[in-house]
Amino acid sequence: MEKLCRDQLIGKLVALFKGADQQSIDDAVAQAKDQLTQEAKQMKQGDLEKLFDAQIAILKDRGVPEQIVEIFQGQKAAVLKKASEMTFGKDNIPFLPVIPRTFRSPYDLMAMVRNGLKVGFTHLNPTVISDVGDVPREPYYIYDVGGGESTLGKSPDAVEKILKQQKRFPLNAAEVMALCVHMAVLSKHNVWVCGSRYGGSGGGPDVYLDGDGRPELGWGCADDSDDRWRSASCGSR
Question: What is the residue extent of each domain of the chain?
Fold first, then answer.
């Protein structure tokens, strides 16, 4: 079917350009490509703006303070510009707003995570959660976010090596909680937090549904491997 359409298009172009000189043909093709590219960019921009506005609406619905929402809204132009110039991995989310732990505690952030009517929670001590590498201290966006579909069953230690080869970044605790707020990832699988550590245990945080179906921020060993778990990542911050 695809070949038939292509052949039909070629036939129409041949009939259209018959008798025209080569320069006129080249100019017309170049202008047509430019116009199609611009139309595609406009469509992409519109989709990205809808995504941005939908995420802001979710933050408001989950009770995020107005001052924090305004910080995100103030980044709209920059976020849409950056995203419109990027190419995203298959099934990846273009961008996500992240409230860092300097602005809200894991108790507050997990309360924003929902599974139906069930509200998320954690018993972890926030003071012993640490992030790997430097991350922004004010509300920010992450880009080209993957839910971890390619890391099925791999331990956090193994995932770190894979992501390094792919030049991607493992999500920290605040980023994974943001992912779970805006996307229904927990209905598919649990999520390792490879970008953070918990105390001196050698383990890291994770987000999953407990026995009652409530989203929970817990922790596990970094060398554990289980087919129920995946590790999320992003292309940039």
Answer: 2-234
